[in-house]
Amino acid sequence: MKHLMTCATAFVVTFMLVIVPAGIVLSDEPTEENDASHDKAYVEKAQYDAEKAKAEAQKAMAEAEKAVAEAEAAIEMAQSKKKQAEQEKASALNKMLKAGYFPDDITLTSEDKSSTAVFSHQKHAQREKLKCIECHPNIFIMKVGEGVIKKGQLTMEEMKKGKYCGNCHNGGKAFDLKDLKHCRRCHPKK
Ligand code: HEC
Ligand code: HEC
Ligand code: HEC
After folding, report:
1. Are the CB atoms for 115 and 125 separated by under 8 Å?
2. How large is the C-alpha radius of gyration of the chain?
3. Residue 159 CA to ligand 3 centre (angstroms)
């Protein structure tokens, strides 16, 4: 019995001295004061993060604007270089033409690329002694580089009506393009 009493006393003492104080220390019951300072810190951190994000976004925007301006300047420069090169090419060709050069044989292609025809300046202008003006610019605009005939317009149907090559290749000035025996002269690959 004495033993039990000692044991119970020891338990109560231990409870009072160790567990209760530890419980008080450990339980960090939120007080009003504690809450307010916590919220303030949280708001300050959020404001700081937002300011930082804003500054970074502004920097990125400034860099992007600079890149756009640089690209625009480069395009402008390239366009003026291209224009200059085209002018130089045209004036070089004009000099060659004055010196008696005829453009190389020109391959004309149908819109779907299934058909090609060959035109020779040498044969028309030099051999047949046709003047440039007989074809340029009324029948064919004379333009260096890409063909100037509107896509899909240079067709047998149009030519049979007298357009383009059909101006002459109608059995009058030159062999008739409707005649089956002449197809290969303009379409050597067929
Ligand atoms: C005086 C030259 C000339 C003669 C002759 C000629 N063609 Fe053409 N033909 C052309 C030219 C130029 C084109 C346009 C480029 C191309 O599509 O090959 C063309 C286009 C074509 C095309 C493709 C586009 C279209 O109009 O349908 C076919 C197919 C064609 N010719 C068939 C013929 C046949 C068949 C004959 C013979 C009856 C013939 N050609 C005779 C010059 C000629
Ligand atoms: C029988 C008609 C004919 C005559 C004549 C003719 N040309 Fe052409 N020429 C053409 C045709 C067809 C083209 C090609 C048009 C196209 O591709 O749109 C052409 C294109 C050209 C081109 C552009 C060549 C290129 O590579 O882009 C030049 C330059 C030219 N002709 C100069 C001349 C000169 C100079 C003469 C006189 C010496 C002449 N031509 C006479 C029919 C003619
Ligand atoms: C201003 C008139 C005229 C025009 C336009 C014209 N030609 Fe001709 N072409 C001639 C004459 C003239 C000849 C020589 C006479 C003949 O062979 O009947 C000739 C001859 C040719 C020859 C035969 C060449 C050889 O090896 O003997 C071919 C191929 C030819 N032309 C293709 C064309 C083509 C393709 C076109 C259209 C892009 C065209 N011609 C436009 C007048 C013209």
Report:
1. no
2. 46
3. 13
The amino acid occupying position 130 is: L
When pLDDT is cut at 50, 70 and 90, the band that residue 177 belongs to is: very high
What is the tens place of the pLDDT at every residue in 88-113?
988 888 888 888 887 889 899 888 88
Ligand 2 contact via 175 beta carbon (within 6 Å): no
d(CA 49, CA 133): 76
Q: Decide if 161 contacts 178 (C-beta within 8 A).
A: no
Q: Of how many residues is the chain composed?
A: 190
Residue 120 tokens, joined: 């020779």
Residue 130, ligand 2, Cβ within 6 A: yes
- Kindly give the distance from the C-alpha atom of residue 183 to the centroid of ligand 2, in angstroms, as a whole number: 21
